[in-house]
Amino acid sequence: MSDTSQTSSWSYASAPENTDHIVLKEQYDLFINGEFIKPDSKKYFKSINPATGEVIASISEANKKDVDLAVASARKAFTSWSKIEPKERAKYIFRIARMIQERAKEFAIIESIDGGKPIRESRDVDIPLAASHFFYYAGWADKLEYAFPNKNPKPLGVAGQIIPWNFPLLMAAWKIAPAIACGNTVVLKPAETTSLTALKLAEVIQESGLPKGVVNIVTGAGKTGSEIVNHPDLDKIAFTGSTQVGKLIQNSIVGTQKKSTLELGGKGANIIFEDAAIDQAVEGIINAIFFNQGHVCCAGSRLFVQESVAEIVIDKLKDRMSSLIVGDPLDKNTDIGAINSKEQLDTINKYIKVGREEGGEIYQPTCNLPSNGNWCPPTLFLNVSQSHTIVQEEIFGPVLAIQTFRTIDEVIEKANNTPFGLSAGVWTEKGAKIFKLTQELNAGVVWANTYNKFDSTSPFGGYKESGFGREGGLHGLIAYLNVE
Ligand code: NAP
Ligand code: MG
Measured in angstroms, how far is the CA atom of residue 297 from the centroid of ligand 1? Predict the structure, then answer.
């Protein structure tokens, strides 16, 4: 079929977001006990703009002493924070939510500069959802007795929280909001490549007047993360990241009193039945795998199309892929931004190579990729089966593996044939099929005739190697409470 490249057919005038009002410091310190303090390590690392390769700012690398200080400050703050009137706790959290809303534009731009995601997504998804999470859990702070009647809910204590780079502010909100609403205090570590919005959040928290030490933010790489995990004075470890690091964490806390929730990787099945509304389903496939460059734990990275409609779906999909705009994350027209880091781009390219070597048939539309920065065009593979590496392993990039099926039982078996169990999507106009699949797919979230929809009131989490525990909704409170 013909390839309508983005340059030859639809060309849009560029619509870059104005960054004049963004104020970033050259160097960021650690946020401990309500103050920004220099790291004991005296070491700083660079945060890079993945779309240009330019250095944005220097970020502190916290060592063991810094983590000790952060945990001690959280422990001290816990005594009073856990005892203040719950409605007072709520006031601070509502204030943080409103301040995120007021500064939404600033947060969105920084998120896109630091992480590479299209401004449309940081503006319309990441930042509003982060504010919503604080609003939602602020509302629960003084109603825990009603959420868990006769169970005497009590906070756990001090939580160590470690988050990944794909939704930096949103993951910080998912971790901090329920924890502090329940009366816990926290030490949070953002990912090395995307610390900036967490540090901006620290500024908001400082301005909000939240009592000192309730939220501490320490930056650094995996080593800093393991100092948190192994700290003896923590009551809980909440981790979102890869299954590989999740397993390491689980091994290190076994035999301790620490509670844990692990939100890990995924390889979501997106299933298109022949009776689905095909054009909507094609949009759904695009959103499922190319949203946030495919850096999404619940991405619909395995597509299953019923054989009778496979040809038309794949033709329409290729056509739609050729109109996706890949490029400057700050341009409001951009659909696919920059790959978050050089390392992640290497990982994605390695999987694309393996996909070809194992006999997969690749399709990538022609894209004018910028010369600097980390880029990957939207990619699909045909002619793959269950045993292919790119069907089994999480790629965490804009790469889709397509298979066909004939019967509902066949697709359930194929969809469940994975070590992961985080998400799935089903496209059909038959309610009965939706109910059957939601019951039989081993996935924490199953979307019907939509994909990648998130809401703070709705629990999110996995089965099997996708981890355990839920974030969001009423379930998200349980992760931070002792209930009798
Ligand atoms: P990652 O390498 O596991 O890193 C996650 C976080 O852990 C980062 O802050 C990282 O620090 C830190 N870390 C690395 N090694 C550590 C160690 N030994 N001990 C303690 N902390 C350590 O994952 P990622 O590449 O950032 O994120 C992608 C993964 O996250 C994917 O697998 C994705 O599916 C998963 N994810 C899951 C969910 C979910 O809700 N289930 C949501 C989003 C992402 P550095 O960044 O400094 O290395
Ligand atoms: Mg960066």
Answer: 10
Q: What is the pLDDT of residues 359-407, one digit of tens each?
A: 999 999 999 899 999 999 999 999 999 999 999 999 999 999 999 999 9
Residue 182 annotated to the active site: no
Give the active site residue among 61, 121, 192, 263: 263
Asked whether the beta carbons of 305 and 157 are under 8 A apart, the reply is no
Strands 154-155 and 481-482: antiparallel
C-beta 164 within 6 A of ligand 1? yes
Answer whether 469 contacts ligand 1 (Cβ < 6 A).
no
Buried b or exposed e, range 118-156, using 16+ CB within 10 angstroms: bbbbbbebbbbbbbbbbbbbbbbbbebeeebeeeebebb
Compute the distance between CA of residue 109 and CA of residue 127 in angstroms, rounded to an integer: 10
Amino acid at 340: N
In the DSSP assignment, the letter for residue 27 is E
Q: Token match 């969105």: residue?
A: 108
- 222 has pLDDT over 50: yes
Closest CA to 115 of 186, 163, 162, 161: 163
* Both tokens assigned to 219: 């930056």
User: Within a 10 A sphere around the Cβ of 252, how many other Cβ atoms?
Assistant: 14
CA distance 296 to 454: 12
- Establish whether 367 is a catalytic residue: no
Q: For residue 292, give the ligand nearest its CA.
A: 1
Mean pLDDT of 90-106: 98
Is residue 3 over pLDDT 70? no
CATH class, range 27-264+466-482: alpha beta
Answer whether 265 contacts ligand 1 (Cβ < 6 A): yes
- Percent of the chain at pLDDT > 70 equals 98
Q: Is the pLDDT of residue 163 over 90?
A: yes
Tell me the domain boundaries of the chain: 27-264+466-482, 269-456
CA distance 100 to 123: 12
Which residues have CB atoms below 5 A from the ion given as ligand 2?
47-48, 114, 193
Residue 189 C-alpha to ligand 2 middle, in angstroms?
15
The one catalytic residue in 297, 298, 367, 376 is 297
Residue 39 Cβ inside 6 Å of ligand 1? The answer reads no
Contact present, 187 and 218 (Cβ < 8 Å): yes
Superfamily name with CATH number, domain 269-456: Aldehyde Dehydrogenase; Chain A, domain 2 (3.40.309.10)
**What sign does the CA torsion over 273, 277, 282, 285 have?**
negative
